[in-house]
Amino acid sequence: MSGPPMHPAPGPRPDLLRRLAARTQARAQAALLRRLRAVERADGPWLQVDDRRLLAFCGNDYLGLAQHPALVGALRRAAGDAGVGSTAAHLVCGHRREHARLEEALAEWTGRERALLFSTGYMANLGALQALLEAGDPGARPGPALCVQDRLNHACLLDGARLAGATLRRYPHADVAAAARQLRGDAAAAALLATDGVFSMDGDVAPLRELAALCAREGATLMVDDAHGLGVLGARGAGSVEAAGLAQDEAPLLMATLGKALGCAGAFVAGSAALVEGLMQFARTYVYTTAMPPALAAAALAAVELARREAWRRGKLAALVARFRAGAAQLGLPLLPSPTAIQPLLLGSAEAALQAAQALEARGLLVAAIRPPTVPAGKARLRVTLSAAHEEAHVDRLLDALAEGLRGRVTEPGDAATGNR
């Protein structure tokens, strides 16, 4: 009688920390290493960094609200009343009146029945996609749900579909015909089409009306991540979905953040009462997370009120964008075709982008060099972002510095980037 099968002795187990260190070293050798720098003080668009005062064109404070006295005052008053932490998840005892009031204001602003707060935009997208796409309905067709996404969608949309176990298919950027082919490739599966409203690395706006019409024809659900559109686009500043004229039934799932144009932190998902009730039950990143500080919700509510009341902020931002684009065109700079506050200057190699950012910093300007893997190889760029806190003189100073610092370094813009962020 033979004994149990013999297996060769295993070799030494790989060390995960060494493996991570090797990957980090490889990134450093490729001039792609990201580095952390502490901002010592912020004063509108001016940042104190390494004992230098720099004029920044790399933040997402599009309406210039992050340091507004109304937000600071609301946060202080609410912290005095409620303290700092919410102490628990929303569904335990962490949901305070400040959260409820903010949700009501966001729902009304965006034209949706209800809104639900999340701690971050990443958590909002992961939670919403997981709740909608994961298997679990005993009456549903067997097999994974289908999630069709724009190739330039934010990483958290991609991660959400993967973590939910959905079949993920990505279409070339803004290609509605390609999205249609992917939906029709599995016509029987429950399907969700997810897109950024404004793409954070290219600054362009998704073809939302065409995508909504496609979803209506194919029986798919449209989800819009409007992190960079809320507060900036639309007649009332309600974002790219408002600008496209889409009602709740045409764009059933809207996600947006509170940390960009509204100058705070956190995020929300807005839609029908049934959607929000379902997310409260099944979105794990909502159920199992401590609620945001109530004082932060109070500050965000003040930001919503300002964004709605002070339309001049959007007008000023649009004028600064137009001024920058006109000046860049006169200089022959390779800007991508963006109508928003995000103005990408395509330079090609990671080395060229990094050198350009360093040259600008030497002139007192802080602009982010965006390199792979955030964008594809050969698509590195300076990501210039404008704010209502900037002045025309600031834009002109940036244009002068670009004219000097990039002379002889620019390449043709070519096509927009084609990778995930």
Strands, total number: 14
Question: Can you give the mean pLDDT?
Answer: 93
Q: How large is the count of helical segments?
A: 15
Query: Based on helices, strands and strand pairing, what is the structural class?
Result: alpha/beta
Backbone shape: globular
Percent helix, as a range, is 40-55%
- Widest sheet: strand ordering: 4-10-9-8-7-5-6
Poorly predicted runs: 411-421
Main β-sheet: number of strands, strand sense, barrel status? 7 strands, mixed
Structure in words:
This protein is an alpha/beta fold and 421 residues long. It is built from 15 helices and 14 strands. It has helices at 16-29, 69-82, 90-94, 97-110, 121-133, 155-163, 176-184, 208-218, 240-243, 273-282, 284-287, 294-309, 312-331, 350-362, 392-405, and strands at 39-43, 46-49, 52-56, 114-118, 146-150, 167-171, 191-196, 221-225, 253-257, 267-271, 342-348, 365-366, 368-370, 380-385. It has a seven-stranded mixed sheet, with helices on both faces. Strands 1-2-3-12 form a four-stranded mixed sheet. A three-stranded antiparallel sheet has the order 11-14-13, with helices on one face. Helix 4 runs parallel beside helix 12 (294-309) and helix 5 packs parallel to helix 6 (155-163). The longest helix has 20 residues, at 312-331. It starts with 15 loop residues before the first helix and ends in a 16-residue tail after the last helix.
